[in-house]
Amino acid sequence: MNRYTGDFKVYPINNHFVDVRCEEEYLTEINIKDGKIKYATETPSSGIFIRIFKNNKWFMTSTTDEKNIKNKIKGLDELADNVAHEKSGLKLNIDPIQDNLIKYEHLNPSKRKIKDKIEILREYDEVIKKFKYIRSYQLVYNDKYLVKRIKNSLGTDIAYDKSICGFTLYFTAAEGGNMFSGSISIGNNTLDHLMNKEEALKERLKEVKGFLKAKHVKEGSYTTVLSESATGVFVHESFGHKSEADFMIGDKSSQNEWAIGEKVANEKVSIIDYGGLPASCGYIPYDDEGVPSYKTYLVKDGVLSSRLHTLTTASLMGERPTGNGRSVDAEHEPIVRMTNTYMKRGDIPFEDMISDIKLGVYIKTVHSGFGMSTFTLTPGLSYMIRKGKIAEPVIVSAVAGSIFETLESIEAVSNDFKLIFNAQGGCSKLNQTKLPVGFGGPKIRIKSLEIS
Fold first, then answer.
1. Residue 71, burial from CB neighbour count under 10 angstroms (0-12, 13-18, 19+)
2. Which residues, by range, are in coiled-coil regions (predicted)?
3. 20 to 30 Å CA-CA from 128: which of 144, 247, 298, 318?
4. Are 443 and 416 in contact (CB under 8 A)?
5. Where are the alpha helices (DSSP H) in 311-426?
6. What is the pLDDT of residues 275-301, one digit of tens each?
7. Residue-range domains of the chain with CATH
8. Which residues contact 144 (CB under 8 A, 6 or more apart)?
């Protein structure tokens, strides 16, 4: 089924570094709105990204034909000759690697008929229809099988594949003049994992009804507990992006704020980025520059330990590449991106974590979040904590705070752990949108957060 043979050679041109990345993608998208199929499409695509490093700059282009690679490299070399010559200050700290990790073709969802995928969604559609307070909804399904091959002029020759599939239910519930909107996602790297989850969906939809009569929380500072998914959004949006080194290049204040070796959190807090987790959205055993995926501790035992790099940012900052050079497709260059970013589990049971909280807030799900030095989360499902127990549902508009102050305020880390898999979502940065990433962690207790 592969379009590209991978038989092409990549040589240095006039002693300059060259790399080539081939991508093949097989994508299915299905949308069912209020019981009716809006669309169901299958879209294969492919492309080849080519670049050289010359005159202290990257020059890059794309093609769809393997036969064009040699001429494209020659064209980039000629283009570079028209640019002012500079002595190279970039040191590509990369070793040649040969590896073949094509191992998920048996999970390839594109081998399954689209009518079978629709039938799975229909089973969930029947469940949703039984909940009369769900007034409108969409079931959005995606699957993707991706094959990458990366070669460079140092001798690297890497191939790997990955499989992603899942769906999200977006809904609006209404009863007695009250409304509540939310979403529920199920995903993994195999289509079979999506089957027979009807009971779990029923429980989630039953929970929604309690929010139709929920009152808005009284604005103020509360001891706040984040669920595993909420912790993941906090780590990704408020801390992960801040760790991306391209934001720090030429910005001394950002570099000083991100002081490696400085204690920034409770010693129980460790935050990791790692693309080597197989059944994850952010799975990449190698990044798009041929660098292996390292388990990078951004925070280790409360101490700021590293940042995320491409080859370029690592060279400019005199640090090791971390395997975080990622692009959204073969038309784009690798930039610093997260893979799976999560907080390491602790050792406290959830019941013990909340047992002495007289009045607090539990954030169970999060719609969205953003941040750099400060952060804001928009919660979905939230509950009051009263006298050490989860109490009534409440509507929370926003949770906000300073990133480093919040890290310092983490009082406890639970022994739970979940890595969130969302086939529909993705991380957006610059002009590269919906890059698959994973995020998660344990439940965490924060001494004080501003809730509104």
1. exposed
2. none
3. 144
4. yes
5. 311-317, 350-354, 403-408
6. 999 889 999 999 999 999 999 999 999
7. 17-212 (3.30.2290.10), 215-451 (no CATH)
8. 25, 26, 27, 28, 109, 163, 164, 165, 423, 436
